[in-house]
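tl;dr need the bound structure. longer version: we got a ligand (adenosine-5'-triphosphate) that a collaborator sent over and nobodys looked at where it sits. i said id run it. heres the input, straight from their email, havent touched it
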Amino acid sequence: MNHKPQKGGHEAIPDVPSSIPFPDEVEHLAMIKEKMDTAVQTANDNVKKIDKEYTATKRYMAEYRGEIDPHEMFQNELALKQIDRTGAFAVGIWEKLAKLKESPYFARIDFHTNEDTETMKHYIGRFAFTHENQLLILDWRAPIASMFYDYEIGSAGYEAPMGRIEGKLTRKRQFKIKNGMLEYVIESSINIQDDVLQRELSQTSDEKMKSIIATIQKEQNQIIRNDKAKTIVIQGVAGSGKTSIALHRIAFLLYRFKGRLSANNVTILSPNKVFGDYIANVLPELGEEPICEQSFWNIADTQLNGIIQFEPEKDPLETEDAKWAERVRFKSTLEFVRKMDQYIKELPRLIFESSDYTSGQFSVTADWIQKRFFAYQSYPIKKRLELISNDILDHFQSANFMGYELPRAKTVLKSLSAMLKIKNTLALYKNFYQWLGLPHLLVLPKKQTLEWPDVFPFLYLQGAFQGLEENKLMKHLVIDEMQDYTPIQYAVINRLYTCQKTILGDFGQSINPNHLHTLAQLQELYSDACLVELNKSYRSTYEIITFAKSVGQVEKLEPMVRHGDVPKVISCANEQEELQKIQGKLNDFLQSGGVSLGIILKTNNAAKEMYDILKQDYDVQHISMDSTHFANGISITSVQMSKGLEFDEVIVPDVREESYCSKYDRGLLYIACTRAMHKLTLLYTGKPSHFLTSHVENFEK
Ligand SMILES: Nc1ncnc2c1ncn2[C@@H]1O[C@H](COP(=O)(O)OP(=O)(O)OP(=O)(O)O)[C@@H](O)[C@H]1O
């Protein structure tokens, strides 16, 4: 497999297309590959050696089990563990090298600092590669590599550990190396980033989200490398790369804070399991371990286990219950959190009535207890009682010169608890609505069971009354689809996770018509956060984004200049014809060798109905609330479940006026359209949605 570099040209190298006019790069790649082959061989030998050592130690222990004394046995067991760890490390190196060999680097920058006259060449890849003490490839996350994303030719600089380094970038090249073969080299005299980005974006979708290290844009790089902000909030239009950026930021932080931060200190709160599966490959592709994945449901389930039960969230599009909707709306604003805060502040006055406490010779007055109660105002109510009971005992102890028997801590605590007028969180939560004068806004569907919109308010009160278990292990929390969570959910999350956060989403892609909160409210909750807005969309063609921008009336949305077919709005005589036309599109897709096609319906029920029909003739997958995997091919799903996903081609059936008419429906249609990367078709029977009628040029019989 070794290819010796041939001086003077690339023709003699078999795995390089002869059209690449960069003989120096062809030669360089051959040299790197040769060194990598040696490194892979060494790593392989290492793994084998460690393997042998492990087997020999195990055999020795088995053969002499009866004869070895316990101390020696223990030493051998320790040795085995150590060999095992070294082996895992060696395998890790070997695996990384093998991956890197496929595509060792994607960029080169030539830079000389203002202090030096010598220009240094730096090749940038997915991981660093050092051979014989020579750093041959830089990790894309290394400080020097940041210049590739941030600067064009000319003055440039980067933040090194010892301070800022300034200098000049004299060359920028970009490469595509696939299966160890150089596919192209682009010199920066042409607009390097755009050209390569265009090539990357015009490809068909992969089954899973992929890394974007070769084409990270400047404004994205700024977010990824921000290691200072405690909280970053990213508001970005559909397809602006928010999820990609969040994952690359994690990879960056894991590199930057190696030893202090590891993948098991990072959690992503994702909207559903399909989305989790869709993004699962990005970090391993970047050489990092997968991070923990959670949902708001899991969090509530863990915190409320054994305390109270709760119902799952109802689908707002399938639930016609005005009173329920009113309850959801009321609990969805920042105002609601403020009301809870006010109630919590008044709790001591409302629920605690101190009285004198006497035990034998000793006593403390009601006033003394009341004062202690206020002094501990930063603690949950129950915790305050514990602290006061300790204070009472200390107080008694210090006056106990005669050595009288003192009460037990438990007994004191019991007496203090009796001074509480309300004894548990559920009673307290009910009382909150009484205090508001709005008791009708709390409905328990069953005994000891909460509706979903009450789960986080309940937890918030639980925090104030009993305390919540803070997750101290987590050092970074990523919250995706931020617009779908209410301020009270954030208020609870802030109690549970006091760590650094990356919060991302798009308030233009809200899927719950009963959620009234806004980006401004989220900002109020995170007043010290760094807010970044991303308005350029990378996912879809210029034609699709221009169409979606007008349908969704998203003024800020900026398309990438990558052209494709104009989206089509097809009129059908009746539902039967609409179905036939959809089937026609599926046949075309199957013949075209396309990779992924999504049929996106307004509701989960409508998606299920379409699936039941199409599964009779096609190999289709249904992405429902219960699904756990995302796969290529034809998928049928709802707008809600399609969020965060993307398909080469998207079909949106049933875009009648009756289906898409409200302001909220406009948002749904926008989400559906922006899932398409290359091709978009909408169909309707009867009267088309008025969001489409201004697009006459897109209409087709
Ligand atoms: N700099 C980039 N280089 C290459 N591809 C990119 C870049 N930025 C984004 N993309 C691609 O654009 C698509 C959208 O990215 P991503 O899903 O992260 O966006 P998003 O803002 O989370 O989208 P949405 O909110 O619509 O779900 C993905 O295919 C991603 O790979």
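gonna send this back to them w/ a short note. Residues 268 and 478 are 5 Å apart (CA to CA).
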